[in-house]
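Our preliminary data section would be incomplete without showing what the modeling component actually yields. Below, a chain of 401 amino acids is followed by its predicted structure, encoded as C-alpha cells that our downstream tools consume directly.
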Amino acid sequence: MREGCRALALRLRGLAVFRGLLDEPLVRRMQRLLEAGGWGQDERELVSAWGDFAAALFAAGPDWTSALLELVLQNENCCLAQSCKQGAAPEALRGCLESELQFLTGLAGYTGGDIRAALGEAGAFLPAWQVHPADFAAEYARRLADVGRTGYGIFARYRVFTVEDARLVPVKHPDRQRLAELPGYEPERQKVLANTKALLEGRPAANVLLYGDAGTGKSSTVKAIANEYAGEGLRLVEVKKNQLYEIPELMDALAENPLKFILFIDDLSFTANDDNFAALKAILEGSVGGRARNIAVYATSNRRHLIKETMSDREGDDIHHGDTMQELMSLSARFGLTVTFGRPDKDRYLQIVQALAAQNGLACPGPELAVRAEAFAIRAGGRSPRAARQFVELLRAGVQV
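Predicted structure:
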C-alpha cells in the first residue's frame, strides 16, 4: 500500500501545468488520503481521510473519474493561456502537459483498493466510489479545440459576472430570461441580435445603447441575448457606473480570452460634472489602446443623451456654451448603434399581454383580457411590457386585478 500511495501523492504534489488542481477541495482530500496511506498514519487518520474524500465526492456524484475529468477540463493553466494567445504552447510545456494528463488518467482510476486491503476487516465498512476508463488527453484536446465556445476556468463554469475590486466575480444564479419569453419589440431586438452575432463571428461589432421608456425590456433584452448565446462563447459582465475606472485593466485581460464578452451597464446616466463621464468615453472609443475585437459595451438608459440636464445648464454662463453642449452630447454618439424602445401603443401592449397569457397557459376571453389589461396599465402608470408581465403574473397567481 505505502509504495503505491506514496508515488501517487508525490506525483500529485509535483503538478506544474495543472497545479491549480491542488486548490480544489476534492483533490486536496484525495491528496490527504494518499499521504495518509503512503506515510503510515494510524488507522484513525486513514479512515478519517477516506471519509472526507468520499463525502466530498458523493456531494456531486459517486464517479471519481468524471469528477476529476471535469476539474481538469475547467482548469485555467499556463499551457492553455499560451495556446489561446499564440496558437500553440512551447514544446516543453506541451511535453509537461502530456505527462500530467497521463498521470491524471491513472489517478482517475484509483479506487483505494490497496488501502482497503491493508485495513482488512477494519476497512470493510468504507464506502466505495465509482471509476471508469477515460482518456484525459483526448478529452482535453477536444476541449482545447472548442475553447472559443466553452471557455476555461471560471468562464467554463459561469456565464454571467459582476466586478468587485477590478476582479470578475461569477454570478451563481443569474437571471434565466429567454428571448422567447419577451414578446413584442422584435424589430428593435433584431438589431441588437445582429450586432451580437457579428461579435460572436469575429466581425466588427458596435457598442450599443438601448434607450427608451422605463419597463420596455431594455435590460431584459441584454440578459436574454446573453443566455441565448452562452453556448456559442458569449459571456456577460455587469459593470456599475462607479466601477468604470476599473474597466480598462479588466478589458486588457479579457482581450486575450478566446470568448466574447458584453460589458453591460444598466440604467446609465450622468450629471454634467460626473467624473465617470470621461472614463466611459475612454472605454468606448477614446483610449490610445483601441478596443478589443472580442468585447462590446451594451448600455441601457432612459435618457437619449445620457446626461441629466437642467434649463440652467442650457442657459449657463459658459463662454463657449456650444462646445460644452457638444461635449455633453458626445458620449451617446460614441455608441455605434442606438436602439430605441418606445412605450407601446394599445395594440402592441395587448399583443404582448396575449402572448404572455398564452405562454403561461391562461385561458381568458380576449375581450375580457383586453379590458382588464388596460385597466391594470392605467393603475400601473401606463402601458409597458413590464406592466403586461406583472398583470399576467398576478392572473396566474389567482389575484383579482
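Residues 91-107 form the longest helix (17 residues). The longest strand covers residues 295-301. Preliminary results of this kind motivate Aim 1 of the renewal.
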